[in-house]
Amino acid sequence: MNDMTTYTMYGQNSSWKTQLCSEISKENTKKYETVRVAGWVHFIRDKGKIIFIQLRDASGLCQITLNETKSPEEAFKNAKQLSLESIISVEGIIKEDARSINGAELIPSIIFILSKAEPKIPIDINEKVPFDKDTEFRFRELSIRTKRVQAIMNVKSEIAFAVRNFFRKNGFFELFTPYILSTATEGGAEKFETSYFGKKAFLAQSCQFYKQAAVQTHEKVFGIIPSWRAEKSRTPKHITEFHQIENEIAFGTNDTIMEIQENLLHEVVKHVKEHSNSELVLLNRTDLKIPELPMKRVTFAEAKKILREKLNFEEPADADFTTPEETALSKYFPDPFFITKFPTHLRGIYYETDPENEKLTDSMDCVAPEGYGEMSSGGQRVASKDRLLKRLEIANMDPSNFEWYIRMFEYGFPPHAGYGLGFERLIRWICGLEHIREGILFPRTPDLVTP
Asked: What is the pTM of this model?
């Protein structure tokens, strides 16, 4: 997590807080004459004449101590009225106390009650009383206050920062694409259909066609782009609304994008371990390893052979990986790895075939270790109109549905390659989450559309 410094409200002064809770520390006892903090009442211990309050804000916790004989009457009276999760603003002085959080406590002169919480909260924000996942997501507007969810979202923010930083420093242009499309880009994926001024339209399953178009101008593009798929699967890695780290590069190959991905993963995990160590400790994820370079590559046929000969699977050699197969492979290899040369019938129309075997595609999947499974898919793209029409014919798809996309290849188009890496799948692996929905502030699944 990035270090948070003195609280500022850009463009205006805050009348409610001048410092963060984390600044109520031994080091700051003589730095400030008077401070004001604001946040949520995290814990209260009322011993009659002495009241201890733990106040929480985005930076952490601080302790506020009141004494009936020493504290101002109004401040002590207000403290007596407080319930957990009430919002207060507290003005006072910092006093060193080795027993308190950060070696200091706040001795208040004024307590403002900004918003009083109902005394009975559906879940325990302190997480001392366990609650199940159904309860967590039914009251998601409250569970996001917990330290665990805050830690996950902090890591997610750092991952997004690291992704953008990696691509920008390597000369990539950030991409923004439409979300309402006239044609489904992923033929095999379930679609969300909607009406668009009397015409049929779809929520974007991916930005595939648009990132390909963008390489005509910028050559090297990336984006963290939202996607929607009407996935009915209720597995730990499926969700109906998610983001993908999209990357496409002109004059690139399948080898190019594998090199980009392995370096991206290396840099992202390294960044998280350097900047989110406290979050990884809270999530019990200190065993996360920075991927070694280069990452291992195995062909689809080699992966099937491992499944058959070493892991006792008997699925057809040319069938896509079942969920148990994918999980087994993910556990078999100790680090992230690539599976290459997928059969043509298992890939989309925009994948180019392998130059040595028309029955295979020049493509790859990137798979996370520890059973977390596939994170990305990509490969060399079809870059000619004739080749694209042939792929559409094989897939039994109507070319009239892809008019502008086909037209794009009539006027000179470079060889190119790209992939989409599931942003939340990456978060699930890095944070060690049981289910992908834990990495989303307000997730959407077949069973969740509120809050």
From this structure: 0.91
